[in-house]
Amino acid sequence: xxxxxxxxxxxxxxxAGWVPFWPGVALLAARIxxxxxxxxxxxxxxTVLGLFARALHAGVDHADFQLVxxxxxxxxxxxxxxxxxxxxxxxxLNAAIMGGWILPVIGAYRARVHGPPRAAAxxxxx
Length: 126
Fold this sequence. Notes:
126 residues; 0% strand
């Protein structure tokens, strides 16, 4: 296998992991919601939107790798430089990728769903 195959496989596996992560976030938000409803709703929504934004970014990365294979590195670089920053609705959710996890971490700790070690571990999920 070539490096390209390993990169494609690794990006595919990581992106496949982001989307099915949302039910766990929903369950955690439901448990937090028993004590802090608003924190659970905002934390759950922002975190799930961040997960889907990550899936979009993984798809863009995959397309970039395929573009290099199809057109060569120089042509792909030109194309990417010309189109970098194009608007996409999930691209507007970039803040949710990083900031969305803060609310469930705080909520899980305050609602006593998780103690300090588990809340700290949850913070690393971002």
